[in-house]
Design brief:
The complex is a heterodimer of chains A (558) and B (295). In chain A, 39% of the residues lie in helices and 16% in strands. Chain A is an alpha+beta fold. The longest helix of chain A has 17 residues. Chain B has 7 helices and 13 strands. Classes of the chains: A alpha+beta (558), B alpha/beta (295). Strand 14 of chain A pairs antiparallel with strand 12 of chain B.
């Protein structure tokens, strides 16, 4: 079987060469050529692609058709198996399973195998065995059937090779090789898709991520889960249940679907109504591009506004832009989570500033000065029950000595005066003189360490104030001085960025990069990611007329 | 000395009021309710008196359906010692409230009743005056911030009102009240003299400030600038859960809730019309003369 394929492949290749069909470049970067990806596209899109190709090389059509007819003899009658029940039923009876196949003859859709994709040969198989080990390179017919057939048994491919990488590096090596050899690839997870997107159409190599099924880490404070793409959704759900958290995604197929597939197809599911789509719940992705580049966009931060948010391209791309190998998810907390709508904090310096500079600001806990103040807001449909919940939570925290004192707003006026204390800090800072403002995303446990370090660095020269969205891990670090002074600036930058980068934080949690941090993106994003961003920028704005000098570093744009 | 404070549960001050489509009243379903702001001020004043040592106990009274218990709990969380709930589902007008208070006074025997000057839902401004009339007690209404009142032998702690440290920043937050040791220069407006059993009240009236001296027992109603009510802190909320609340019904207090008033219609005030731009002074005079008819 393999030998025959070999011959057919050779013939195909030589024929095409003779006709002068232009070879697409083998090692192009993804920039500007996203539509020409080398991963097999779902069949409808493949059809479009095919016609375009035929237009380009008019003389190639005949050759293709003849080759395909010849391929019929060798068993590669892909078109026939789609559009003729007879042949396919013949085929299926060979394996003793009577699979009912559908006839699409009426549709004017004809998918033909794109001749530019190479055929698999022994050398390829040996190369893969070298990367993955013989155990993870599967050519066994039985296992291949499940990989080749979709869940509804509607679509059947005829792939001859199933690869099961265990690490991202292995996936990268596989894709680099397939890119070089122009071998089409189908990324496959749980194979529970209902539109035939997860099975090969012809003989594409199936890269299954089922072996990458580790839950890498779970942070109970922030509710952030990092796991590999092959984790089965049900396993993740039961793991989180033990921890007291809820997964924002739930589907009927949870027993077999894998989270990598869910993310790549932007699966909706049962809980979307409450928790929103995966676009909102996935905080970061590690993906491997077609040429083997590993894009590490994994940031365990709730908020990160540095540069373009590339992960959204991959969520819902159905494996056509990159293979997702790891992901970060936000989980919903059970105790106060469902009615919690705000969780802010401010330190004593911030409180003093507001009380001194803003009229109408009133200290809610005047009996003693505290180091930190936290403002909690809940929103719900039943006021009395929410109030009970909040009171119970607060009183419980007091008993456990998590909080030393607190005040509960009894009416809307008191609530707005509480908010004035928090929302009035920027204004109070402006009135106090000059202010250097930094907006950083830092893991919650280490958040205040930065403020204390800045205090020791600047001493009496400046008033270092820390406040922010504690619930999101977002610190607003403000240094207040009577006037702007370069000396003080040099003490602050780049120390603040380096510190944040060292602790895997983001230098801009919500304010963005603008002009201030245009050249500082590398503190939070890897060079490969920035390269993809600059290619997108070049694609959409080739002359760079939109908002120049900002967001992305000048060096990479020019 | 016991102080009784009456508090009322009303629609929250910051809520936008809407009239019911059948014009029989305002919409109270699913609308945030809280303590009447003037009642908060009254309770705050009573608590300050207790903290200064002049009073021994503050009793909070509320009347209405069972939801009023929320408001009563807030009052207890602010610091009142006991609560009394008069359970009644029918609408209570000021005269009923005054009669109930009169009967409660026979039971509780306070020396001072402090009320808010009016409720923000009906704006009657009648209850305090009626109570004083029924009990034949002196009244000091619209008690407010004023010039320093006459001082007598004070029996209260001169500088520490709520146990604040003498921190400037904190002091500036509590409504600009300053207390200096020894010189007795205070801006308190209600000055209670324990020995002489009198209370001096500065009243805010149309002409200015009127100072009256009342013999105890007396009725005081509070105006807006008297003080700034405190927040309910968590330790106090915890304590409030165990404070006793006595229940009464109007029947037990021999008060018949018979309404002599019937609300015929409730409508919104007419919408403010948009202003008209005039082109010249003559035009303005013309409009004032002929259209507005004010000259």
């Amino acid at each position: 079987m393999v030998n025959r394929n070999c011959r057919a492949t050779l013939r195909l290749v030589t024929l095409i060469n003779r006709q002068g069909h232009p070879h697409p470049p083998l090692s192009s970067s993804p920039s500007g050529h996203i539509s020409h990806s080398y991963i097999i596209l779902p069949f409808s899109i493949a059809f479009v692609f095919l016609t375009v190709l035929c237009f380009y090389s008019g003389t190639g059509i005949d050759a293709c058709w003849k080759q395909l007819q010849r391929n019929n003899v060798h068993g590669e009658h892909k078109i026939v198996s789609f559009f003729s029940p007879l042949a396919s039923s013949l085929k299926t009876r060979q394996w003793g399973v009577n699979i009912q196949s559908r006839c699409y003859g009426s549709a004017s859709v004809l998918v033909q195998r794109n001749p530019k994709f190479s055929k698999l040969n022994d050398e390829d198989v040996r190369y893969f065995e070298g990367i993955l080990g013989a155990k993870n390179v599967i050519q066994d017919d039985e296992k291949l059937i499940t990989a080749n057939t979709d869940w509804m048994r509607k679509y059947k491919g005829s792939s001859k090779l199933l690869l099961q990488p265990r690490t991202t590096d292995q996936v990268s090596e596989i894709l680099k090789y397939c890119n070089f050899r122009c071998l089409a690839v189908v990324p496959q997870g749980g194979n529970t898709g209902l539109v035939g997107g997860s099975v090969p159409v012809f003989d594409e190599v199936v890269v299954s991520l089922s072996a990458m099924s580790k839950i890498i880490s779970f942070d109970k404070v922030s509710g952030i889960l990092v796991c590999e793409a092959g984790c089965i959704l049900e396993n993740i759900i039961s793991f989180l249940d033990n921890e007291g958290f809820i997964m924002p995604l739930d589907l009927g197929a949870k027993g077999s679907c894998q989270i990598g597939g869910n993310v790549s197809t932007n699966a909706g599911g049962l809980r979307l109504l409450r928790y929103g789509s995966l676009h909102g719940n996935v905080l970061g992705i590690e993906a491997v591009l077609a040429d083997g580049t590993v894009l590490d966009m994994l940031k365990t931060l709730r908020k990160d506004n540095t540069g373009y948010d590339l992960k959204h391209l991959f969520i819902g791309s159905e494996g056509s832009l990159g293979i997702v190998t790891k992901k970060l998810l936000q989980e919903a907390r059970r105790k106060l989570g469902e009615i919690l709508s705000a969780f802010e904090f401010l330190d004593s310096n911030a409180m003093n500033l507001v009380l001194n500079h803003l009229e109408g600001a009133r200290n809610p806990l005047p009996t003693s000065l505290h180091n930190f103040y936290v403002l909690i807001e809940t929103t719900g449909s039943d006021e009395s029950s929410d109030k009970q919940k909040l009171e119970a939570f607060l009183l419980g925290s007091m008993e456990n000595e998590l909080i030393s004192d607190g005040a509960l707003a009894q009416d809307i006026n008191q609530a707005s005066s509480f908010w004035l204390l928090r929302e009035g800090i920027p204004e109070a800072l402006m009135r106090a003189g000059a202010v250097y403002k930094y907006d950083l995303s830092i893991p919650v446990e280490k958040m205040y360490n930065l403020v204390e370090e800045m205090r020791s660095r600047l001493g009496n020269d400046a008033n270092v104030v820390g406040y922010g969205h504690l619930g999101d891990g977002n610190l607003h670090l403000n240094v207040s001085t009577p006037q702007y002074d370069d000396k003080i600036l040099s003490q602050i930058e780049p120390f603040v960025y380096e510190w944040t980068s060292k602790h895997h934080g983001s230098i801009s949690a919500e304010h963005g990069l603008g002009l201030m941090k245009a050249n500082k993106i590398f503190y939070s994003k890897s060079p490969e990611t920035v390269k993809v961003m600059t290619s997108i920028k070049k694609l959409l704005d080739p002359n760079h007329i939109l908002n120049p000098y900002k967001v992305l570093p000048c060096s990479s744009i020019s | 000395m016991k102080i009784m404070v009456a508090i009322k549960r009303v629609i929250d001050y910051a809520v936008k009021i809407r009239v019911k489509p059948d014009k029989s009243g305002v919409v109270t379903q699913n609308v945030k309710m809280s303590m009447n702001p003037f009642c908060e001020i009254a309770l705050e004043e009573a608590l300050r008196m207790r903290e200064s040592g002049l009073a021994s106990e503050v009793v909070a009274v509320t009347m209405g359906p069972s939801q009023c218990l929320d408001t009563l709990r807030t009052g207890l969380a602010m610091g009142a010692d006991r609560g009394i709930h008069v359970d009644s589902t029918s609408a209570l007008h000021p005269l009923h409230v005054a009669k109930i208070l009169m009967n409660l006074v026979q039971i509780e025997k306070p020396s001072l009743i402090i009320l808010g000057k009016q409720a923000i839902d009906d704006d009657c401004n009648q209850t305090g005056q009626m109570v004083a009339g029924l009990l034949n007690w002196p009244q000091g209404t619209f008690a407010s911030k004023a010039t320093p009142s006459k001082l007598k032998n004070q029996a209260f702690a001169p500088t520490m009102w709520w146990g604040f440290p003498k921190d400037k920043s904190n002091m500036s937050q509590i409504g600009k009240k300053e207390y200096t040791h020894g010189t007795m220069k205070s801006l308190i407006d209600v000055v209670l003299d324990k020995e002489k059993e009198e209370v001096t009240v500065d009243r805010e009236v149309d002409d200015g400030i009127e100072t009256v001296q009342l013999k105890l027992p007396a009725v005081i109603t509070t105006d807006l600038r008297l003080n700034q009510p405190r927040y309910a802190t968590l330790p106090n909320i915890m304590k409030a859960k165990s404070k006793p609340i006595k229940k009464f019904t109007p029947q037990e207090l021999n008060v018949e809730i018979k309404s002599d008033l019937e609300i015929v219609e409730v409508t919104e005030p007419p919408k403010r019309k948009a202003g008209v731009m005039v082109s010249s002074v003559d035009d303005l005079i013309d409009k004032l003369k002929n259209e507005a008819k004010v000259i």
